[in-house]
Write a structure and sequence with these properties.
The complex is a heterodimer of chains A (about 290) and B (about 325). Chain A has eleven helices and no strands. Chain A is mainly alpha-helical and about 290 residues long. The radius of gyration of chain A is 23 Å and the shape is globular. Chain B is built from 14 helices and two strands. Chain B has a two-stranded antiparallel ribbon with strand order 1-2. In chain B, strand 1 and strand 2 form a beta hairpin. In chain B, helix 1 packs antiparallel against helix 13 and helix 7 runs parallel beside helix 11. The longest helix of chain B is centred in the middle third of the chain and has 38 residues. Chain B is globular. Classes of the chains: A mainly alpha (about 290), B mainly alpha (about 325). The interface between A and B is large, with 40 and 49 residues.
Amino acid sequence: MSLVQPAAAPEAISPLREAWIVYRRNRPAMFGTLLLAVIVAFVLYGTFLYAGDPYEIVWAPQTPPGTEASVPFGTDYLGRDMLRGLLKGGGPTLSVGAAAAIITLLIGVSLGGIAGYFGGWLDDLLMRVTEFFQVLPALLFAMVVITLFSPSPITTAIAIGVVLWPQTARLTRAEFLKIRELEYVTAARSIGARNGRIMWRVILPNALPPLIVSATLTVGVAVLFQAGLSFLGLDDPNTMSWGLMIGTNRQYVLDAWWPVTLPGVAIFLTVFAVSLVGDGLNDAFNPKLRER
Amino acid sequence: MGSIAYIARRLVYGVILLIGVLVLNFFLIHAAPGDPAETIAGAMGGATAEMMADIRAAYGLDKPLLTQLAIYLGRVAHGDFGMSYYFDQPVISLIAARVGPTVLLVLAAQVIAITLGVAMGVLAARKPQGLMSGFVAVVSTIGYAAPVFWTGILLIILFASIIPIFPVSGMTGARFSSGSAAYVVEVLYHLALPAFTLAIIFLAQYSRLSRASMIDVLGADYVRTARAKGLGEGKVVFKHALRNAVLPIITVAGIQFGNLISGALLVESVFNWPGMGRLAFDSVLRRDYPTLLGILFFAALMVVVANLLTDLSYRIADPRIRTGGR
């Protein structure tokens, strides 16, 4: 409770609202948001409108798209419906990508936050661990983890999260280092707030903008990782995904371009949309960039 | 800090990191479900009881965990990364045969990405709202969002059936005796597409970065001074501005090495390039853990060496670091 009432501020708007106003005016960002919404809607509801087993052989192999009404997107090398695969295959790609980004964020923010807040030997130790994980080529390490433990979407998500967290940790650490010196943190400490409370209730909310941007971009990277792993055939072969479609059809690519090209376009558009959203959030949260 | 002391410290640190990788390898084998001996032999089966007994004895699997770790590290110190039971060869000789092509691919991609990226960035920086800046933005987007294996396959379609000027698979055509000039040309010819494919991902980053960094530097006082004393535009851009703008690029180039190797795994698989990525892929399919873990170690070794070289080139490029900021 403040005793002195501040003079009427000229139209106070919350930072979040301000960010949204900036974001809404950003055309590429809004286009990305819309594109992402359309892709997610197709993946979530498409299978209701266009039902069917993506593994079922329905027509002659390698029927080009647009030549046969019952298979509008054509068929793959076995004669399986491409559209069914595209709709069904988006699910694992998107959900594993999102889950991996969440795991990345959990590990990265906890370790980075602890390192940045406490500093000293703990910071040194955690940063050495971070550097260690940056020395391991991420995709190779993920391959090893998936091979050692049986392949499943959960293993894939964990493997991707385990290899992607160092960057988030570094970013979180830098933010925590900066914010912990600010006056409102000292103020919180002086009224007796414990470390845990200061870290997660005082510093973290203020460190969120760059973390949200980085988390968004991590989703894009995780989607690419999932696609790469399933392209190599490391994901569960019974889970249809865009990467798997590319991997299984690539031998026949010189006979038929669409079974490889279409899932690739789907991956490209997804990651493209995510990156537009990420860039837009970055601009919206970063007032310094707005004038440019 | 003197250069030699600094390099020595980085070397020791690199060795510690690599020992860390080995310890991680060791615990990964033990954390995997099932009998470690079976894991080492390869879960595809085919290991006889005699082989299993050999493995148990060789790795001391009946001894305490720490003793086992010591045995494992001792074997690696002697260059023994175990046997690949699938390929029926020592892991070290399998990898030795594959390191060269991967290093070649990764370095070629890095050189292409940096050269093209910096050139595009410099051109774009001179007109921040111009056509080249737009082009850089488009290339960045493609490089970021397109899966590298997919770009590779699209290039295969393009170069195999539409404009067949580059070979799309393997490292050499028919039999070539290694060492001859014709062999070198043949390898470079086959290298073109895979290296370019891999470079596309990183091209985006370098062009964006060098554009931003050049815009900064071109606004600096010393560039104005250089112009004021009447130097030609080429001299200003390349001798005064670029040398300063290149520093952040070196930093990123060092950081990117791990990612380059990850990308090479996929590119090698697409173009049938006979490097470590192909080997990794084959050993994953055969659940050949000794080979896979050996590759993980050598890939980490490559990253450590690359980081060390980055540090050194940074010191050469920026005299301020060499003299400790004095």
